[in-house]
Specification:
Elements lengths: L5 E2 L4 H16 L20 H14 L2 E2 L1
Parallel strand pairs: 1-2
Amino acid sequence: MAKPKIFVSFDFEKDRQYKYTLNMWNSNPNFEFTCDDRSPSEIQTESVSVVKNVYAYRFNSAGYKI
């Protein structure tokens, strides 16, 4: 059975500690958790419409939205 995909959006300036927590859980072999970090830095464009399209695709492919 495939694991559910969860899309999490946040304000990095205010919520970065939560992102770091997810990454720590992902690194801990004793914690059953997988995080696929797809932060905006991987979108190499200044185009707002391209960024919106990328996030819309990711958001719509997730089974859960937070």
